[in-house]
Amino acid sequence: MTHAFDAAIELSPIGPHRFAGKTHAGYANMVGPFGGITAAVMLRGVLCHPERLGDPISLTVNFAGPLTEGAFELQAQPVRTNRSTQHWVLTLTQEGQVACTATAVSAVRRETWSMPEAAPPAHRPAPETLAPLPLAGYPAWVARYDMRFVEGMVTWPPNGELQSNSQSVLWIRDTPARAIDFASLTAICDSFLPRIFVRRRQFVPIGTVSFTCYFHADATQLAAQGEDYVLASARALNFSNGYFDQTGEIWSRAGTLLASTHQVVYYRE
Amino acid sequence: MTHAFDAAIELSPIGPHRFAGKTHAGYANMVGPFGGITAAVMLRGVLCHPERLGDPISLTVNFAGPLTEGAFELQAQPVRTNRSTQHWVLTLTQEGQVACTATAVSAVRRETWSMPEAAPPAHRPAPETLAPLPLAGYPAWVARYDMRFVEGMVTWPPNGELQSNSQSVLWIRDTPARAIDFASLTAICDSFLPRIFVRRRQFVPIGTVSFTCYFHADATQLAAQGEDYVLASARALNFSNGYFDQTGEIWSRAGTLLASTHQVVYYRE
After folding, report:
1. Of the candidates A65, A85, A212, which has its C-beta nearest B212's C-beta?
2. pLDDT, tens digit, for every residue of A186-214?
3. What separation in angstroms does the CA of A136 have from each of A159, A170, A173, B28, B173?
4. pLDDT at residue A28 in the model
5. Is A262 on the interface with B (CB under 8 A)?
6. Residue to test with chain A: of B108, B214, B257, most A Cβ within 10 A
7. Nearest-CA neighbor of A111 among B163, B236, B243?
8. Residue B56 preceded by cis peptide, ω within 30
9. Strands A71-81 and A257-267
10. Would the pTM of this model clear 0.95, i.e. be above it?
11. Which string of DSSP letters, residue by residue, matches A3-51?
12. Which residue, A251, B29, B101, B117, is most buried by CB atoms nearer than 10 A?
C-alpha cells in the first residue's frame, strides 16, 4: 500500500521540465495543504528530474499564495549544471497563477575534512518514554506525524500565557512510520508548530512566506536512519510588525545533524 | 562623489523587468566579485523596480557560477503581487549564462504585537575601543569595510590551529562610512569571513552556494541607524563532506535585530 506521504508528493511528467500533481486531503492545513508537503513536492521536482546531478544541498521555497485543494503544475528547471553542482529554479502554479517559487542546489559530495560544531539539545529523553502530542484542535496534517515533545508543546486550548522563549524540542517521525528520505526530511523541517503559538500560547493567523532547508546528510547517511525518530529543535529570534523568523535543526538519534532549516513567517495581531 | 557601494550596485533599466549593471573592481574577491555585493545587486533589482510593493522581508541568492569582471544583465520579475506581499524571481546572467538566481519577498508591514526573543552577544565592547582587522592577505572587498573584531578574527598568515568553534563577533560598517540601507545590510550579511577559516585558522578554497537574508527592520528603523557600526555575529553548525553552513545576526548598537542570515558554503580539502 502506498504511504500517504508518497501519494501526496507524486508527480507525473507532462513535458520537458514539467510535472503534474495534486493536493492530498491527509495533509490539509487550516487553509490549503501543509506547507511542508508542498515544499517536499517542490524538492521532488528535483529528485525525480531525469537530469538531476547529486543530492540536494539546499532548498528555498517561497509561498506566494495559498494552494487550493486539487491539481497543480510544477515546473522544475535545471538552469545551470557545473561539474559537481546543479542549480534549480522551480515554480508551482494552479490555473496559471504562481502559488510557490523555489530555488535549489544539488551536488555530488566528495569526502573532505569534516567536523561537527553544534551538538543536539543535551536534555533529550528517549522518544519511547514520552507521550505523543494530543491532536485535538490541530489540522489534518498533524496526525500524519508522531510528535513527542521534550519541551515547547502547545495543546488545545492554548492558555494564552506568554512564555520567555519559543524553544521546542521534540522527536518526530511519519505516521505510519516511513524510512526518512530527502523529501520527508524537507517536510519535517517545516513541521514545527509556528513559534508564535509557542511563545504566546495563543493561535493567531500565520503563514510561512519563505522556507529554507540545508541538507547536511547525504543519501547514504539518511538511508541509515530508516524509520527511526529524528530529534527536532526550533526557536525564533524576533517577532516584529507582522513577521517572525524560525531556526531549527534535525538530528539523528545518534546526534548527527541531518538538516538545518530557517523560515520567515507572516502573522496577524 | 558617489560612494563605491552605490557605484557597484548601480542598475540601468533596459526593458521590462530587465536591468544592466557591471562589476566594480573595489569589491573584487579572490575569483570574481564579493558575493555580498552581488546579493546587494540582486536586491537592488527589487528595490529599484517600478512595481515594487513595500520593504524587503527575505532574499535568497544562489551563486550558480563565478561572475567575471564586466557587464551583467539582471532580470527581476514580480511573479505574484498580493494585497500586502509581493514575490520576486531574479536571474543574473553574463553572456546568456546564468550566474545567480534569487527569490525575494517584499511586503507592506503593519504594526502588530512585537517582541524580541534573542539578545545580542553579551560581550560587546564599543567599536571605538577595538582595532580594525588588518587587511594584509585579504582581497580588495575587505578594504571596503571597517571590521572591528570582538572575537573570531583571522589575520594573515593563519596559524592552522583548529579552534573549538567558529564563532565571530564584530562591529562593521562601510568604508568610507555610508548610511545603512537594505542593499548595504544585505552585503554586510555576506561579509563574514568563511566559518571554515575561523574554525581551522586556515584558508581553503570556498564558495557560497546559497545565501539567505531575513530583514527584521523596516526602512524607518534602518534609516535611524545612519552611518553607525552594526554588531555582526556568526557561527556554523556543521562541516561535512564539502559543505558547511553559517548562521548570523546583525544588530544595531542599541541591541535591535536588523537582519538574520544563513548560508551554505562549498569547500575543498
Report:
1. A212
2. 999 999 999 999 999 999 999 999 999 99
3. 14, 18, 19, 56, 50
4. 97
5. yes
6. B214
7. B243
8. no
9. unpaired
10. yes
11. -HHHHHT--EEEETTEEEEE--GGGB-SSSB-HHHHHHHHHHHHHT-TT
12. B101
Write the DSSP string, A68-127. PSSEEEEEEEEEEE-SSEEEEEEEEEETTEEEEEEEEEEE-------EE-S---S----G
Which residues from chain A sit within 8 angstroms of residue B247, using beta carbons?
Answer: 247, 260, 262
Mutate one of A83, A212, A233, A240 to test the B interface: name it (highest B CB count within 10 A): A240
A125: cis peptide before it, omega within 30°? no
- Average pLDDT over chain B reads 97
B114, closest residue in chain A (CA to CA): A240
A66 to chain B: closest CA residue: B82
Cell output for A228: 527511526
| Cell numbers that stand for B232 in this block | 555582526
Q: In one letter, which amino acid is A201?
A: R
Question: How many residues are given for chain B?
Answer: 269
Q: Which residues of chain B have pLDDT under 50?
A: none
Structure ipTM:
0.98
